[in-house]
Each structure stands twice: as structure tokens, then as C-alpha cells.
Amino acid sequence: MIVFYLISGGLELLFDNQKSLRIGLPLGTEQTSATMKELISFIVDAGILKERPELFKQNDTVRPGILVLINEADWELEGELDYVLKPNDEIVFISTLHGG
Amino acid sequence: MAKSCAACTTARAVLRRPKTGEPYCRECFFAAFENEVHQTIVENRLFKRGDRVAIGASGGKDSTVLASIMKTLNDRHDYGLDLFLLSVDEGISGYRDDSLETVKANRDEYGIPLKIVSYAELYGWSMDQIVETVGRKNNCTFCGVFRRQALDRGAALLKADHIVTGHNADDIAETVLMNLLRGDTPRLQRCAAIATTADESVPRSKPFKYTYEKEIVMYAYFKKLLYFSTECIYSPNAYRGYARTFLKDLEAVRPRAILDIIHSGEAYEACTRCGYMASHTVCKACVLLEGLNKGQPKLSVGGASQRRQLAALEAPASPARATPAAGASAS
User: Fold this and answer.
1) Which residues are modified to 1-thioglycine (chain A) (predicted)?
2) What pLDDT, in 10s, does the model give residues B115-165?
3) B46-237 topology per CATH
4) In B, which residues are within 8 Å of A10 by CB distance?
5) 3-class secondary structure for B74-142?
6) Which of B156, B177, B220, B330 could share a disulfide with B225, CB 3.0–4.6 Å?
């Protein structure tokens, strides 16, 4: 069990209007680590995402237009999907897809 | 595996800049971002000292960052501008009333006076009433047209010399794509321009024309600027959404694509003879017409070298239909 802190900036509507969540990511008995790829799949598969998964996930990654920060740094600098998660990591998803 | 900043080489990088792919730390990113907007303002001579500038303020990230940075740069570089926030209240319950609270907070935080004009006040119809009447399809057209005029009327009330809007590089690239897909050539000419031309009522410009949306969001996030980010409740299926999704997919593959699309839009210009859109000085229609009028129709169907020969021959007078000479051969 690894715990992460997740904040959705502008994506609250998909997460039942919650601005932050603590997520416990269950690992299999033989698994020693998990990556961002697993976290994103888990968010969708475990029902943490309340509606319209296509607005959050596209193929194996977040939909283009959603920015991801890992511990206050651009995930593009941290390995993106391959980043290995650590306890108490802070993950922020910020959508730029809103308009109107 | 934290990377160092490409600019100062010491601090922890927090952002990969989409224009260059380089890792930047927070402070160097702020400095580069602000300086690039300043360069855009200066190089395009957007303002002159003493201008009263109305900032179109929606409460969203672009106008919030624009208001913040206009104040920062006006103070730092002594542009000598009088700044105002100008908001349009469309009258959309649960959306605009919340976003206007954000603009009021911005007014207080930045110390910039705020003017709000509403559709109900100007037109006698709120957007909620319009949607009730025309339905959800096409209501964005009403809103877009009314908002544009409302900004002009609000600016006139403020006696503003200039309106700035928070349109960023991504917005402009989207608009280029949309107008390209629609084949709307007059709009395609205008949409990549940084400022409006003299014939429009109050001059407008887009200081963020070359600024990536990702950087605007990151700037707001790291500076902890308050902004409102909920989607308009009437617009989720607006046509722009398709161009936007396509553009974001392109950006994910090659971030530079956004600037390249803007440069494509800028590359189109008006034909020097007829004024319609052309990718050369003289458009193809005028070239073909010239060939016909000179009795050399095949010349204009040829390649660039033949077009250069034709250009060298061309008279300054406007093209007129040639009168066949008396007794000329039919061929």
C-alpha cells in the first residue's frame, strides 16, 4: 500500500467536485513498485474518477491538454509514465481543456 | 533524477518549456516568461505612453495571468499605461457569476479598477434566456457576437484607447485550424494578426500570441494566482472543441507545432491586385486572368520561372479585358 496525494486543478467535476484526494494504491504481493502508468489506470479502473473517463485518460496516458506535476515539477522532467511512485508523492493534474 | 535548470544550471528544474524542450527552474521560468511577453509588446509596439488599456477579464487563467503580468510589466518597464479590468457578464447561472467573483478578487489583489457590462443591461437578454429561446445548438454564435460588441461598448464607457485579450498561442493556432478547415479565407487572414487594424472601433491586441497555454497554466500555478476553470455549461460540444482536441494531440507529439501553425497563418497575405487571400504576391486567379487577357493562356499554367517572366512583364494598371484587335486570327 502506497499513499499518494492527488489534486485536480479544474478537473474537480470528474472527481465529484473534490479538489484533493488521498489514494492508496494497492500493490500485488510480488510487486515492489508502481509507476504513473499504473496510477492513471487505477484512478479510472477503481472508480475514483466519477464520470467521463475519456476526458481524463486516452490510451495509456492522460489526455493531451492535461498537465501533470509530480512533487511540484513537470512530469516531462520526471520520466512521465515511467516515473516510479514513492510514498507521499504529490501528484497534480491540471486541465487546460476547459473553455467558454 | 531531478534535472538542473538550463538557464542558471544550479536550481532544480520544474518545467520543460514547450518551445525549446529545455528544463527551467521556477525563477528562471518566471523571468523568461515575463521577458518574452515584454519583447512581444515592445517589438509589436502594442501601446504608447498614456494609453488607457482595458484588459478583457473573464476570471479564467489567461485573463488572470494577463492582468497580473500587465501590472508587473507596466510597473517594471514604466510603460505609463492606465490599466482597467473589463468583464462581460453573459448571464449564465452557475458559471459567469462564479467567475466574476474571481475577477473581483483579481481587482482587489492587483489594484486594477474593474468595469462589468452585462448582456441583460446592453441587449435586454441574458444568455440563459437566449438558450431558452434558440436552444443549445448555435447559442455560442450569439454569445460570441454579443461578447465582442460588449467589450467594445465597455471599452468606450471606460474611454479606453486599447483592449488586450488573453488569447494565447494555442487559441490562435486553433483558430487558424478552424478557419482552414472551414475554408474561411477572410478570417484566416485576420486571425493570426497580433493586433486589429485601424478600421475597427477600439484597437485590440493579444500580448500572449506567442505564449503557450501550458506556460500560462504553470505560471499561474507556481505564482498561486487564483483563477476559475469550469467549462461553460452551454458550450461542451462547440465546434472549437474538435480543433482543440486535434491541436492538443499534435502538441503531445511535437510541441513546436503550435507556433508553426501560427506562422502558417501569418504566411498568408492578400493578393496585390485583387486583395483576396494568396500564398504569393499575386494570386493564382489574377495570374490566370493575366494570361487570358494577354492572349497567352498557357503561360500562366506553367511553373515559377514562367510566373517570374510574367511578373516582369506586368503593367501597373489594373487588369482589364483586352479588346481583340481588328482582323486578329481566331487562334
Assistant:
1) 100
2) 898 888 888 888 888 887 877 666 777 778 887 688 888 998 898 998 999
3) Rossmann fold (3.40.50)
4) 229-230
5) HHHHCCCCEEEEEEEECCCCCCHHHHHHHHHHHHHHHCCCEEEEEHHHHHCCCHHHHHHHHCCCCHHHH
6) B220
